[in-house]
């Protein structure tokens, strides 16, 4: 069994990429990566974070995004808004793939 911990535990005081350093120092080897901003869903960011995690021996088990902003909008009645957030969702799923996971924590509409 592997036990992991979320990078969100240090939000907003420590950037996501720096949390993995803290976790590595105390022996954590599995994380849920919380992507706090749209820029953290970008391909270049995900690649750099994956490289850092690999170097530290940390496995990304799942991702979690700022769901309170994004996920309800995937079901928005306004097509333009819904379409924009579908594209952002695709970006986050691509980041998950780059980070080496196929697990996405999803809350859905409220």
Structural description of this entry:
By secondary structure, the chain is of the alpha/beta class. The protein has four helices and four strands. It is elongated. The model has no long low-confidence stretch (mean pLDDT 93).
Order of helices and strands: EHEHEHHE
| Major sheet strand order | 1-2-3-4
Average pLDDT taken over every residue: 93
Secondary-structure-derived class: alpha/beta
Q: Helicity range of the residues?
A: 40-55%
Keywords:
4 strands; alpha/beta; about 110 residues; about 45% helix; 4-stranded parallel beta sheet
Could you give a short description of this structure?
45% of the residues lie in helices and 15% in strands. It has helices at 16-25, 43-56, 67-70, 79-99; strands at residues 5-6, 30-35, 59-65, 104-105. Strand 1 (5-6), helix 1 and strand 2 (30-35) form a beta-alpha-beta unit.
